[in-house]
Write a structure and sequence with these properties.
Layout (H helix, E strand, L loop, with lengths): L3 E6 L5 E7 L4 E5 L10 H7 L4 E5 L18 H13 L5 E6 L1 H12 L4 E7 L6 H8 L13 H12 L22 H14 L4 H9 L3 H4 L6 E6 L5 H9 L6 E6 L4 H9 L22 E7 L2 E8 L7 E4 L10 H4 L8 E4 L16 H15 L4 E6 L2 H11 L4 E7 L6 H10 L11 H12 L23 H14 L2 H11 L2 H4 L7 E6 L6 H9 L4 E5 L7 H9 L2
Parallel strand pairs: 3-4, 3-5, 5-6, 6-7, 7-8, 11-12, 11-13, 13-14, 14-15, 15-16
Antiparallel strand pairs: 1-2, 2-4, 9-10, 10-12
Helix pairs in contact: 2-3, 3-7, 5-6, 12-13, 14-17, 15-16
């Protein structure tokens, strides 16, 4: 079963990301905090047997923009669900929510009972005021990026101990969870989602906790199913909710962790509308602004940051190893509205699916060409940052009539002892480790890339003499992208180090610009490459990426 990922636009131009699968009447699914709809994939696989599942990333989480202004009592989040129904032209839907999602679903059902066919509550319960007050002291912590990277360890500590204590920050025997800790990769996935939500990760999370109580739940007047999972840490709180009495419109559905989705599905089918859910709308913002889109390619989807407004050939920007389209956004942003711009997350990077087994310039190029086929663009200009340059070259070799100009901003030209040293030392393993120490490895590599070249040459000769070298926000973004890529980043970097630029550059039959800003640690590679192929133009770019477009315009417009 293929779970499609899409975006829909809100009236203010912000976007909601969702996963969609199945056929039949519509079911809206909402996830726990502070994660994303990816956590609902097991539920989607079961529910999609009878329903069209539309699993939302809560605004401010996953890939959904933080579009909610009225966060108090979760009413603004409920209004967003209403907008989703409107966008799909749905009069009503089955509403499923887990944990935070259950509380948003509760508020939606209270405000929009006529649009709620059935409310399904999973991981819902009742907390006393004392229990809730204890959560406010220590449950949430400051996730603001810090220069030393210790915010990463705080996220790891909380994510790991969610499966050790409930609440996670407890040390009491009575709060110990009688199972082993979650698998290490599951902990890392939770960390990735938490870091993506950022310092505001607590907002919807805490609002949901405040309203997880009997007095609020019993205000629901529509048919409702309440999952009672015998294995869940929430079981005592669900039983407390039940013990205080539920209205006749509630049905308790006993289950275990292995059976709860099927049990809920069996109970839900009779409540659903018989009408089919319409297809997902294809939306792009009418105003010229950068948006997210998911583009279908063989084996999965790529995330793109794009704006298709403007005249002339689209400019395709390709990011560096273990990065994402966000890292090249300052380069193409000045073109927004002037010419179409597209930046993909490379396969297995950022938010794109890992649709390839071999990470090299040729396979990246093949997938990006497939994505451009899907978007319907026959001719483009391509800008590659570091490893993006070789990918641009391979795209032109594969489709000689498609690529009209290539810009290599930071030329990948490495040979001999330098190449061997980079392959051996540049990419230490960041495989998740139980103690979270891999996080500091990732942070240190990303931080020191701005201090030394190469980062592991921490001698006087390796110093990069840059003012304001440690940009904490940028280091945090790059580290987050690195952690999502995992040890695949080793292959991505090694493909760049080993690319045979000396052999392949003279094969280009289209205009190529070799360029770099003055601060570029590998600025020397521009001269090396131009000596190999004097036909290439070269230029030193301004320090700020937002100013590069002036030199690029001159190159693109030259006869």
């Amino acid at each position: 079963m293929f779970i499609q990922r899409r975006f829909l636009s809100l009236p203010d131009g912000k976007q909601i990301h969702f996963r969609m699968a199945g056929r039949g009447p519509a079911m809206i699914l909402m996830h726990p905090s502070p994660i994303s709809s990816e956590a609902l994939v097991p539920a989607i696989r079961v529910f999609s047997e009878k329903f069209t599942c539309i699993a939302l990333d809560t605004p401010g989480y996953g890939l959904s923009d933080d579009s909610v202004t009225k966060k108090e009592d979760l009413w603004g989040y409920a209004d967003t669900v209403c907008h989703v129904l409107d966008t799909f032209h749905l009069e009503s839907a089955v509403i499923y929510g887990a944990a935070t999602g259950a509380q948003i679903g509760t508020q939606f059902a209270r405000r929009f009972p006529n649009r709620t066919q059935l409310l399904m509550l999973d991981g819902a319960g009742h907390f006393t005021n004392e229990e809730r007050d204890s959560f406010s002291d220590g449950y949430f912590f400051n996730l603001t990026p810090r220069r030393d990277g210790t915010h990463l360890l705080a996220a790891w500590d909380a994510s790991r101990h969610l499966s050790v204590f409930f609440p996670w920050m407890s040390n009491l025997l009575e709060d110990r969870i009688p199972y082993g800790p979650a698998p290490i990769q599951s902990v890392q996935d939770h960390v990735n989602d938490m870091l993506r939500a950022g310092p505001d990760y607590r907002i919807a999370y805490w609002e949901a906790m405040k309203f997880e109580k009997h007095a609020n739940t019993v205000q629901v007047e529509v048919p409702a199913l309440l999952s009672l999972n015998a294995d869940s840490v929430m079981r005592p709180h669900t039983e407390s909710l039940i013990a205080q009495g539920l209205p006749d419109n509630f049905t308790v559905v006993p289950s275990t962790s292995q059976t709860r989705y099927q049990a809920l599905l069996d109970a839900a089918v009779s409540y659903a509308s018989k009408s089919e859910c319409p297809s997902a709308p294809q939306q792009f913002n009418a105003q010229p602004s950068i948006q997210n889109a998911m583009v279908n390619v063989p084996g999965g989807q790529l995330r793109a940051r794009l704006c298709l407004e403007g005249e002339g050939l689209p400019l395709v920007a390709i990011h560096d190893p273990a990065g994402s389209s966000q890292l090249v956004e300052p380069i193409f942003k000045p073109y927004v509205g002037r010419r179409p711009v597209i930046a993909f997350d490379n396969p297995g990077n950022g938010e794109s699916d890992a649709v390839i087994d071999t990470f090299n310039s040729e396979t990246y190029a093949d997938v990006l060409n497939a994505a451009l086929d899907e978007l319907g663009f026959d001719e483009v200009d391509v800008l590659g940052r570091y490893s993006g340059g070789p990918v641009a070259m391979e795209m032109s070799f594969q489709r000689p009539k498609r690529v009209k100009h290539i810009v290599q901003a930071g030329v990948s030209f490495y040979e001999g002892a330098e190449q061997a040293s980079l392959v051996e030392n540049y990419t230490p393993s960041i495989m998740p480790r139980w103690d979270g120490s891999h996080l500091m490895t990732a942070w240190s590599v990303m931080r020191d890339q701005s201090l030394y070249w190469p980062w592991f040459n921490q001698t006087k000769d390796g110093i990069l003499w840059n003012d304001g070298a440690i940009d904490v926000a940028l280091t945090d973004l790059r580290t987050r992208e690195l952690l999502k890529c995992g040890d695949r980043y080793q292959e991505a970097y090694n493909a760049m180090w080993r690319y045979p630029m000396r052999e392949k550059l003279p094969r280009l039959s289209i205009p190529c610009l070799l360029c770099h800003p003055s601060w570029e640690p590998v600025a020397y590679t521009t001269a090396l490459a131009q000596a190999v192929d004097p036909r290439c133009q070269s230029v030193e770019l301004p320090p700020g990426m937002a100013e590069w477009h002036r030199d690029l315009d001159a190159f693109f417009s030259a006869p």
